[in-house]
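Fold this: Methionyl-tRNA formyltransferase-like protein
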Amino acid sequence: MVLNTVARWNRSIVNRLDAREWLHSSSSSNTERDEPLTVGVLVNPRVPAWHERAIENVRALDGVRVNYAVVNAEQSSMLSDGADAINRDGLFSLDDLKLFYRVVSEDGLKAALYADQKLGWDVFGETRQRELLRSKPIDDVDCLADVDREDCVPESDGAWKTLPDETVETLGQRCDVVLRFGFGLIKGDVLTAPEHGVLSVHGSDIRKSRGMGPQIAFLHDNEHVTVTLQQLSEEIDAGSIVEMTSTDVPTHATYDDVSGEILRLSSAVYADGVRNLRDGNSPWDPETVGTYYSLELQRKSPRFVGTLLLKNNYRRLRKSVA
């Protein structure tokens, strides 16, 4: 799809969607709270910069208190090694090659996409995505230093995770709303235990596409990118909408351009959504949801992966000689 409108590269003002206007007009009242809105977070042991920024933005809101954190205590060497690869500067190392072969064995063709990201960072000097994905141990995250926390090991059912009953009970008692940054796909009573449920960001307008976010926006040549903050349900990317926001992307954007903008928007939208809840604005259900693009395409479809790689590297070369 060809861009109908040329977006300026230096345009950084975020455009509010019509959905935001609808959300505010549909609110029954802007409730004045006597007590702060209490917020819990679900996080991994390594916290990416965009997660940290999102939590900082929520903490900066008046009438809101981040008071509890649940840390995923599952042992995942793949997750840890992947975080190390993102943090590690320089050209491909022996550790990178070892990780590549592990990803090939577990995730198939997705390894080629990871290698392409590393190529962009270390050869083409792409920084937008990487700087927001760099992570640190949770003990070094200042915005969570004074927050009560517990470690928990979720029960796994395929790709889905269920939190222990005692953890769910604690979140329901201590938190008005929970923000999901870690644990992957979650289901069970935790989704309804807090008054406002569990919120999570998706890197697209869920009314148009679900599943993969940045990859689809890049391949479709969208003239702008959108993120959706949703109230999670047990259907993938089909929850009630708490907030949406979008911004333009440059003409002939690379994947780093697109994914970097989506991460930037994602770090801001949590605070916008929590503000909506604090002010008494109700989430709303979309009339329809978009096509579901399975993550399996990254693992098993040579056509999908090949198209993404060819297009991205053509854009990189075009940008480098411009």
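Confidence is low (pLDDT under 50) at residues 1-31. The first strand starts at residue 15 and ends at 16.
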